[in-house]
Specification:
This protein has 521 residues and is α+β, with helices and mostly antiparallel strands. Helices cover 38% and strands 20% of the residues. Strand 11 and strand 12 form a beta hairpin. 32% of the residues are buried.
């Protein structure tokens, strides 16, 4: 239901307000009908994806089907004082006066989000506007269902974000002239209250094609728009075409959302990795200071008293004395060696990350371009892109995600604790190789080597799989242990996936998937 259609219903209702309420009826589990004296039934159908509100003289019956409807019947009482719409958005509020009696019922607001798949009916505390504490919601929206917006009983309702569009009820000739160069099929992008159906109806009433701009004929387009404000009904042909376009738009929106999420995750990951490069570069200054202090300690070690916590050593350039903090439990030479080792680690980290920086920046640009393409892509392009990405994904087997190492060995990655246990204790043979990120929860990786030794490229490939499928995902310099399966066992009474192991070796890798990870056929 679109904004102008909703405005027409509320306009007809408001002529009779305030009105005495005569009770509720509930024809089904997602429909509530409020009987108003002298008006008829105000019917609120809040089933996604096609919620609707209308006035009906038909007699409605039905007892409450669930707790929310029982609450409406018992607590949302008293005269209906006012109905107000949020601009021409698909959100409106009904204000109830409350009721005195054996058990007094306080005033409340009922708010209806007539918003397709996100439709909801809420009871809010009495107040003005569209914000307030949620007393009860027909549909609880938690973070697991929608990470951007939650709707919880007891929480605070926040209306949809503000937007700037022209109000067709108040449009002037100057406003319409500003749209003269815009194809009439796109006027709904700039005019409030128009969706796909009413946008198509506007095209029909103007007599123009959807891709045609009104130009000098803008007065006729304005007249058609004003007629739509007064009578937002849709012709049968337009209804069929609009419904088809709405279905296509909904499918495109679903595909766009599904494709956007992994791209946004990849974008965030690459940005974090580039931030690692920046931090590593800043660490070079600390490495240079460590080396300078280490050189001083080696040069003047004979002057440093054992057990001291600091020393003042002459600078090589004669600029004065340099304060150097010391570990009193180490000798001057050992303190110097500690600084050299720390400097080498920082320099090694920077060199390794700096080598990847051009690749990361290219990946960043590619992710940004693909996100921009998603916004402009039509349904056919989105379907083609979805098929391409599906084909690129590694094959999933009943026993984990399957990869192939550079040497041609099958690598299986557990997706949960049960699969980890299956791979390690049932699928793996004693001479197969087992990998796991050291000190991080994550997947078991099994390389089915058939008793053969693994070359270094295979070891590093499997280690990166283990690091990328652990809590260290996206980090650099992740330690990964590997050993033969025969050295891995499950402690008695421990949960699935928990193991002990011996005879391991450790490699350090980045916590990202290998660049070339061809899935096994």
């Amino acid at each position: 239901m679109e904004g102008l259609m909703l405005a027409r219903v509320l306009r007809d209702l408001s002529k009779h307000l305030p009105a005495r309420t005569l009770g509720w009826a509930f024809p089904d589990e997602t429909t509530a009908a409020l009987l108003l004296d002298g008006v008829g039934n105000l019917v609120l159908s809040y089933r996604p994806p096609q919620p609707v509100v209308f006035l009906s003289r038909e007699r409605m019956r039905g007892d409450p089907h669930n707790g929310f409807q029982r609450y409406l019947a018992n607590r949302v009482r008293g005269d209906l004082l006012k109905a107000e719409q949020l601009k021409l958005d698909r959100v409106f509020a009904l204000h109830f006066a409350g009721e005195t009696g054996f058990v007094d019922q306080p005033p409340v607001r009922m708010l209806f989000e007539v918003t397709g798949r996100n439709a909801n009916l809420l009871v809010l505390e009495a107040g003005e506007g569209f914000e307030g504490r949620i007393v009860l919601a027909a549909r609880e929206i938690t973070g697991s269902r929608n990470r951007f917006r939650t709707v919880r009983t007891g929480g605070v309702y926040t209306p949809p974000p503000p937007y700037e569009k022209l109000d067709p009820r108040l449009m002037t000739g100057e406003d319409a002239r500003s749209l003269a160069t815009l194809p009439v099929g796109r006027w709904r992008e700039r005019v409030d209250g128009l969706g796909l159906l009413l946008g198509a109806e506007l095209v029909r009433r103007t007599g123009l094609s959807p891709d045609e701009a009104p130009g000098d004929r803008w007065p006729g387009a304005l007249a058609a728009l004003r007629s739509l404000v007064e009578d937002p009904t849709v012709s049968e042909g337009t209804m069929r075409e609009g419904a088809r376009e709405a279905a296509r738009a909904e499918k495109a929106a679903g595909l766009r959302k599904a494709l956007r999420e992994p791209l946004e995750k990849r974008l965030t990951l690459v940005q974090n990795q580039l931030a690692d490069v920046t931090r590593a570069e800043a660490g070079l200054d600390n490495a240079a200071q460590d080396r300078t202090e280490a050189d001083l300690l080696m040069a003047y070690a004979h002057t440093v008293e054992p057990g001291t916590a600091s020393a003042l050593l002459p600078a090589f350039d004669g600029s004065g004395e340099v304060p150097v903090a010391l570990d009193p439990q180490l000798s001057a030479v050992q303190n110097a060696e500690k600084r050299y080792a720390r400097a080498r680690r920082r320099e090694d980290v920077y060199e390794r990350l700096a080598e990847r920086e051009p690749t990361l920046r290219a990946e960043l640009e590619e992710a940004r371009e693909r996100l921009a393409q998603l916004d402009a892509a039509g349904l056919e392009e989105l379907e083609a892109l979805s098929q391409t990405l599906q084909a690129e994904r590694p094959e999933k087997s009943p026993y984990g995600i399957r990869f192939t190492t550079p040497g041609g060995f099958e690598a299986l990655v557990g997706r949960n604790n049960k699969e980890n246990a299956t791979l390690t204790h049932r699928i793996g043979r004693s001479l197969d190789y087992w990998f796991h990120a050291q000190g991080y929860p994550g997947s078991h990786v099994l390389v089915r080597a058939g008793g053969r030794d693994l070359a270094l490229p295979d070891i590093l490939y499997a280690a990166r799989l283990a690091a990328a499928h652990s809590k260290a995902r996206g980090s650099s310099n992740v330690p990964v242990d590997y050993t033969r399966v025969k050295f891995v066992w499950r402690p008695r009474g421990s949960p699935a996936g928990q193991v002990h192991y011996t005879d391991q070796k450790t490699v350090f890798v980045d916590g990202t998937l290998p660049e070339e990870n061809a899935a096994a056929g």
